[in-house]
Design goal:
The chain is of the alpha+beta class. It has 16 helices and 16 strands.
Length: 432
Amino acid sequence: MGKSNEKCVQAPLGMKDIFPEERLLWVEMENAAREEFEIAGYHEIRTPVFEDTRLFVRSIGEATDIVEKEMYTFGDSAGTSITLRPENTASVMRAYLQYELYKTKKFQKFYYIGPMFRKERPQAGRLRQFHQMGIEAIGSYDPLLDVETIKVATRVYDRLGLGGYVVKVNTIGCEKCRPGYREVLKEELSKYKDELCELCKARIDRNVFRVLDCKNKKCKEIRKNVSNTEDHTCNDCLEHFKIVKGAFEEINLEYTIDPHLVRGLDYYTKTVYEITHSAMGARDTICAGGRYDNLVSDIGGPPTGAVGFAAGMEASMIALLKTREENQKPKSDTSPLAPDVYIVSIGDESRNYCFKLLNELRQGGIKVDMDYECRTAKAQMKVANKLDSRFTIIMGTDEIEKGVIKLKNMQTGDEDFSENTDKIIQIVKGNI
Ligand code: ATP
Ligand code: MG
């Protein structure tokens, strides 16, 4: 990418353009995700990028980083407060509830891929428009489903060839046992109040679970001293977690239990999980999820078990690029954006003819381009080289008069002559 031109209007802070070269990896990741999601029976849902603010406040929770300081909230002309979606789970649940999808089929599986918006402090890897891909299984309390969702995530990563990720799991209990654990935590953490970061000092009273999620080094140290969530969960939750652990063993999916793992959103219950990757530094989560059995009822629906994850696409991509660098995957010697054929036109009269040829070749499925900047033939050849075009066709008045097309293979130097466009298409297709 060239240097940024400071004189023009700049993209807003935390917003990133994705250029064609990078986009290839996006498409690869999206395709891998779509295929794995569909294999597991999840189907795509596309919800609007903004929603009634109340949806996020009720689901994500008032005392969370997202709702407290990260949402893009504004009023529309009718005076309704709306918010750019900071995540997609709440919207999917809203759609499930609003259209009473549970009446036709209680158990439904969805996936989404798209942009999310959070007003985060700009720092490495943190954007204000970022992307998540995720799945939601709604309408079941089955612990096996918790593991299914994790397996779907790891299959996407395996398909992409991402090595070195770690699956971390915990149980955070339910509305019956969480209040007890909350009190225990408050008491235990109060002893370390002076050593906690400023934010966490306030979190002890406001939302003590957030202390366990703090990225501050000292706070991370302190949390090793507090009791495990598992020691304070009720029998129901323990039983659920036991089945989850058994299912991991059953399908040989490697995992570790992180006894203090919590998530930054309030709606989670029972199983929570993260997939982390060492390429990421302190904020090492590339995928996060869990169960949220109270979310549908929090937004006004019937009690409905649900589980799912959201994978950060930028984060996953950083990890993937790192793995590929380490494996030194040989780079293909031609650019993936290169055209198959570049047509060089000699003289103004040949341009119309070349334009017709270009369209015939495209019709035949060939990636082909020609000069639209009225360059000399020599300059056009330079462009063909720069674009890394696999073939060139040079059309001068002579060729047009004789009705012959001269196709040159730029790697081997071989030349083919033909009067027939279909023959040209065949040769090119046989070489790509
Ligand atoms: P974190 O503690 O990393 O901020 P979170 O609890 O806010 O996480 P989730 O909503 O669970 O994040 O998001 C899942 C994943 O989405 C994160 O692990 C991260 O990879 C990605 N993500 C979240 N916020 C951003 C952002 N502002 N920019 C880029 N990626 C993000
Ligand atoms: Mg966050």
